[in-house]
Amino acid sequence: MASTDTTPVLDKPVNVQSTSDTANADTADVGAGLDALDAVTAQRGSLGEALRQKALPPLIGVLVVIALWQGAYSLHLTSSYKLPSPADVWASAQDLWYQGTLFSIIWTSVWRGLSGFVLAVVIGTPIGLLVARVKPVRTAIGPVLQGLQSLPSVAWVPAAVIWLGINDSMMYAVILLGAVPSIANGLVAGIDQVPPLFLRAGRTIGATGLAGARHVLLPAALPGYLAGLKQGWAFSWRSLMAAELVASSPDLGLGLGRYLENQREFSDMSGVLLGIILILFVGIAIELLVFTPVERRVLRNRGLLAAGK
């Protein structure tokens, strides 16, 4: 009796080596693509390219505004009393320069604004932490903070004058009342956007209480907190200008707001426009020199901005 062969026969052998090679090739392609992306991201442009992309557009915008301004003056769209020429405003700036008062006027306001803002950060940050993390506190004063943020800063000036008199304390009180709600609300918004996983991970490694707030909560909420700080500075600067415009005393010195109001009283439109331009210049300078570099660093560290930008 013939024996029967029961060995299974494969119709088509599986090429394991080929499958492995294909997977390795796909992995290598993905890795090469990621390396290429990293290489592009890490490239740094030349100084000329950076100036052309970042400095040239704002400069062109300023020149266009000056050209339109000069055109309106040359066409006599209104009287020169109401709209002086750019040259007239420049002459007013030169007068302050020759008198030696230009930088002192700017510095008086800048020092008040920055020192008041720092004090507002010291006060607003713990308030924001309490409101964000303690539910009864949030229920009690959260709506108050929102309302205070929408209140015009100039509304505090009469009350601050009655409470404290016309002095530096009044100035700082107006700054704090304008800036603290914005800083606290910004921090609350940032904390609300922190993933719960981060907080659980912090508790797992023992980062609770103040340590958790310092090492987990604040770093995780940094983008929202930074937005609140930027808005807080804007409110500080606007509050200070409102206080300087309304309050007048020899003991306060001459700041930008007081200079602007003095020129209005003298009916000197060139000086008024110069005051407006200087106030705008300081606000833009603080934004570009302080907040923009910090914001770019935060975004870059979180992988949201190219390393070369």
Structure description:
This protein has 12 helices and no strands. The protein has 309 residues and is mainly alpha-helical. Helix 3 (86-99) packs across helix 12 (269-301). The longest helix has 33 residues, at 269-301. The radius of gyration is 30 Å and the shape is globular. The model is unreliable at 1-14, 16-20 and 30-42 (pLDDT under 50).
Number of strands: 0
* Oligomer category: single chain
Strand content: under 5%
End-to-end Cα distance, whole Å, is: 85 Å
Mean pLDDT: 80
State the secondary-structure class: mainly alpha
Secondary-structure element order, as H and E? Answer: HHHHHHHHHHHH
> Biggest sheet, open or closed, and with what strands and sense?
none
Q: Determine Rg (CA atoms, Å).
A: 30 Å
Helix count equals 12
Tell me, briefly, the overall form: globular
Helix content: over 70%
Question: Low-confidence stretches at least 5 residues in length (pLDDT < 50)?
Answer: 1-14, 16-20, 30-42
Layout of helices and strands:
Elements: H1 16-42, H2 47-74, H3 86-99, H4 102-133, H5 135-150, H6 156-164, H7 168-192, H8 196-204, H9 209-220, H10 222-246, H11 256-265, H12 269-301
Helix pairs in contact: 3-12, 4-5, 4-7, 4-10, 5-7, 6-7, 7-10, 8-9, 10-11, 10-12, 11-12
Quick synopsis:
This protein is mainly alpha-helical and 309 residues long. Helix content is 78%, strand content 0%. Helix 4 (102-133) packs antiparallel against helix 5.
Characteristics:
mainly alpha, single chain, 309 residues
